[in-house]
Amino acid sequence: MTHTIVMVGLGATGLAMAESLLRRTDVRIVGAADRNPAVADADLGTLAGLGASGVTVIDEPSRLPAADLAVVATTSDLNLVVDTLVPLLERSYNVMSICEELSYPWSSHPHLARRLDQVAKANGVTVVGTGANPGVLMDTLPLLLTTLTQRVERVVIRRRTNMSRYGAILSKFGLGLTPAQFDEAQASGAVVGHYGFEQAISALAAGLGWSLDEIVVGQVSPAIVSDTVRTGDHVVVEPGRIAAVTHAARGTLGGRTVIDLEIMFGFFDGSDPVSAGDDYRIEGTDQVIELSSPVGFESFVSTIAAAVNVATAVVDAAPGFLSMGDLPVARIASKGTLLAEAAPV
What we know:
InterPro entries: DAP_DH_C, NAD(P)-bd_dom_sf. This is 4-hydroxy-tetrahydrodipicolinate reductase. By secondary structure, the chain is α/β, with parallel strands linked by helices. The chain folds into 2 domains: about 5-130 and about 300-330, NAD(P)-binding Rossmann-like Domain (Rossmann fold), CATH 3.40.50; about 140-295, Dihydrodipicolinate Reductase, domain 2 (2-Layer Sandwich). Helices cover about 25% and strands about 25% of the residues. It has 9 helices and 16 strands. The chain has helices at about 10-20, 45, 80-90, 110-120, 140-145, 180-190, 195-210, 300-315, 330; strands at about 5-10, 25-35, 55-60, 70, 95, 125-130, 150-160, 215, 220-225, 230, 235, 240-255, 255-265, 275-285, 290-295, 320. It has a 7-stranded parallel sheet, with helices on both faces. Strands 7, 8, 9, 12, 13, 14 and 15 form a 7-stranded mixed sheet that branches. A two-stranded antiparallel ribbon has the order 10-11. Strand 14 and strand 15 (about 290-295) form a beta hairpin. The protein is globular.
C-alpha cells in the first residue's frame, strides 16, 4: 500500500528528508509547504536535486492537499511548533516531526502533551516526535540495550557528533562565533545548545520505571576554538572561532546520578584532540554493557534515516501521542529495499 505524504518545512533537514521520501516506493509526496519566499513556487523534486516531481512548494500549510501523513521540520521549540501541529491533526493528518522537544514532552510540557494526545485521538490520527537525538540515540537505543540486564544501576552516554552538514540550527550552538560573541549570544538567549536532553532522559527513565528526583541540564560551553578554516555544507568556521561546544545533562534518583549524558557538537578535523564518536555504558547488577562507535553515529544522516524509516509506522500506529519507544522495532527498522536509486538529473 502506498501512503501519501505532505512536507512542512524545507530547510536543510526537511529537504534531505524529502529527497529520500521521493525515492521511496511505499510513499508518495503530494504536497509541500515552506514560508521561505526563496522556495515558494519551486518544484520539490528540483529543489531536492532529483528533477521535476510535479509537487509545487506553497507558502501556507493550511492549503496543503489531504494526505496520510504530514512530516514537519520547522523548529526545535515545542511551544512554537504546536501551532503548526494542531491544525494538521485537526485536518486528520497523522503527524511526524523532528522537533526535539516533541520526542517525549510528558514531563517537560505536560499541558501541550495532553493537548496533542487529545486532539490526535479525537481525529483518529497519530503524532510522533522522532530523529536521531532525541528519538533514538539517547533514549530508544539505550533502552533497548538495557534488555540485556535485569537491573540497571546507571546509564552513561558520551557523544561527539559532526555538525558540518547542518544549516540554520547551528546558531543555537554558537558554532562559528568568536568566544566573545558566544558569551554575548548566550547571555541574550540566542545560544541555548541542544534541545531534547530533558525529553531523552524522561523517555529513558519512563521505560526503566524510574521516577527521577530531578533532571539537570547544564549550560552549553565552548570546547574547541579553531586555528584552521573548517568548511561545512552551509557554514564556514574561520580561525579564532568556535568549532565545537559541549553540552551535558543528568537525571538523579535517590540522590545519585543514574542517567549521565554529554554531547560535543562540532566541526572536527585531524588536528583536534578528539574526533567524532559515540560511547554507551549500561551498568547493570549482573553485567556491564558497552557499545562504542569510533566514528560516531552521524547526526544528520541518522536523523534523515530515522524519519524516513518511521514514516509509515506512524500512519499505521494507534491514534494518540506516541513516542519512538511505543512503536514496534520491526516497524521502524531500516526499509532500504523500498528506497529506489536516485535517477540522474
